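Section 5.1 Outputs to date
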Amino acid sequence: MRFLTPVLAVALLGSPALAQGRIGDVTLTPIPAPAPARGLPQSARSDVPAGWQEIMGRVSAPATVNLPAGSRVNVIVDDPTRTGAARQVLRVSFAASRLSTPYQIVFNPTRLVSGRVYGVRSTVTDRQGRVLYASTAYARLPQGATSTLNLSVSPVR
């Protein structure tokens, strides 16, 4: 038992000491690397086909809002030179339980007519399709392979 106690002490206390360095009376202990910063989830560009465009951002209200069950967020790219159903060039719809919520659109820009200016807007609907929140203005569709565009919505009265 007398022999086991010093061996056990060296085994338990010796391990951390191996990771430390010593200069004179100063013990140096390595500092672990900090955790990476968290932000918007970035897509893996390898998932986006070559030549396609990716837009991501957040749809948000003036304050954090819990949405009713069954609510859907719609992000719509419109051609302002057209009317009716033909006006919508692209529409992405997904379920959400609260605002702010992230979104991502990946599309082939050949669907757009070169030289035209397109607008992006968002609506939030309940289970029955009634509009609860909507953009009050269009945001201009950004150019480039990857863009960030945050959209604001306001309550519909």
